[in-house]
Amino acid sequence: MLVCCFLDIFRHMKMVICSWGCLIILCFQSVFGQKKEAGPVIKDFGKVWNVQNADYPTKTGQEFKVVFDVMNSPDNPSQRNASIETAARFLNMHAQSGVPVAQLHVALVVHNKASKDLITNEAYQNRFGIDNPNAEMIAQLLDADVDILFCGQSSISRNFPKNELIPGVQLALSAMTALIQLQNEGYSFIKF
């Protein structure tokens, strides 16, 4: 009987704590009311937070040249590659913060496990039985003038030939070559 009484009290306390927790979360969201948003450059991907009153201000008159080194990819072929989406976040957050799109220059150098993320839906279907979850995001990045460079060494070693690549993806001699050349052209290196 005493055990049943404690169990009832425990269940009641658990409900009260959960209810208060949900109420606090709802109040926090309604007070701060902020949500991540995509766009204006990449409309369907790259959601970011709007940061107000930053102590280290963004120099909106500056040119931003960045190259992302993307070598990893989720093991699950149905998952989108968050490292590739970083380029969409970079473009959207800077455009939302007032940097003109003409001053944003982005390149992705893709190799290793991420090789599979650059192939067409047809090639992806043949290998994994589903459409490439990255295809639309890559198309939108290419439409935004992002250079997507694929390592030729990964192409051969991982058996992802050029004819299976999403149109617009460029084949390079190697990821190393592309990274060096882009850095020599003033692109800042970011590793993901």
Detailed description of the structure:
The relative contact order is 0.15. The chain starts with a helix and ends with a strand. The protein has six helices and five strands, in the order αβαβααβαβαβ. The chain is 41% helix and 14% strand. It has helices spanning 2-32, 82-96, 121-128, 135-143, 152-157, 175-184; strands at 64-70, 104-110, 147-151, 170-172, 188-191. The chain has two domains: 1-33; 64-191, Hypothetical Protein Ychn, Chain: A (3-Layer(aba) Sandwich), CATH 3.40.1260.10. Strand 1 (64-70), helix 2 and strand 2 form a beta-alpha-beta unit. By secondary structure, the chain is an alpha/beta fold. The longest helix has 31 residues, at 2-32. Mean pLDDT is 89; it is low at 21-31. A five-stranded parallel sheet has the order 4-3-2-1-5, with helices on both faces.
The residue ranges in which pLDDT falls below 50 over 5 or more consecutive positions are 21-31
Q: CATH H level of the largest domain: which superfamily?
A: DsrEFH-like
Question: How confident is the prediction overall: mean pLDDT?
Answer: 89
Q: What is the helical fraction, as a range of percent?
A: 40-55%
Major sheet details: 5 strands, parallel
End-to-end C-alpha gap: 58 Å
* Overall spatial form: globular
Indicate how many domains the architecture comprises.
Answer: 2
Strand order of the largest sheet: 4-3-2-1-5
DSSP E strands, number: 5
Task: Quickly give the structural class.
Answer: alpha/beta
Q: Write the H/E string, N to C.
A: HEHEHHEHEHE
Count helical runs. Answer: 6
Q: Determine and state the CATH class of the largest domain.
A: Alpha Beta
Strand content: 5-15%
User: What name does the CATH topology of the largest domain carry?
Assistant: Hypothetical Protein Ychn, Chain: A
Spatial extent as radius of gyration: 22 Å
